[in-house]
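hey m, so remember when u said the tokens were messed up on ur end? i reran from scratch. heres the input so u can diff it against urs
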Amino acid sequence: MIKLQEAVLLTASLCAVGFSYAALRNTAGSRHGNAVLSPNPVRLEQLIPLADTLVAGTSGDVVVQALDYECPPCRGHETENRAFRAKYPKTGWLILQFPLGMHRHAYPLSLAALEADRLGAFKEFHAAVMARPILPQESVGKYLDRVAPSLAWIGAKDLRKDEGFRKRLDTIRHLPIDGTPTYFVFRRDGATGLTNSVRDAEAFLGAAKPTGVSEEGCRPGAECR
């Protein structure tokens, strides 16, 4: 029987499976601006109707982040993501719900996020869920009652019956996403790329000089490689 601590470490390692592949793929990508990103075959126009908006943006630069609300690396990246959004408030930032099958609560949390977005409460939902993780024994309703009481009623709804939400998540699953988080980056000059590093996304957009440091090696619950 797997102990809770071992399960958490295993979950963190599994979340990072896609990153190892993405890191290798990034080495074969093309250089844009100050960072090397993987080729991105997806147009922004394809992602906008599938995504939830955190920052509308006015600069023409857009970051679309694919995440799983139960994935430790996604939460580990959030401090840097918030710092980026605060530093560059004119850059658009959208969220794609990409629940991983290995996570018990990921799919219902994604459905709750879509419902919160439909009701104009997505920013509140996202901030609350990224701040504190759901516990293994909690239902989504009890979890939201703990971290965002005003949204607890969303977790009590049976959103699995919403055909529109299910089709939306099925469409997202077919996008070129290897793991979470993944960042689709669109620059105002038309250049685009794909990465799992917000630092590379920042450099790609011309907002920073290259650091020469890769984020792929360090993940919560695992040693740096």
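this time it looks ok to me. The radius of gyration is 17 Å. if urs says something different then somethings off w ur setup not the seq
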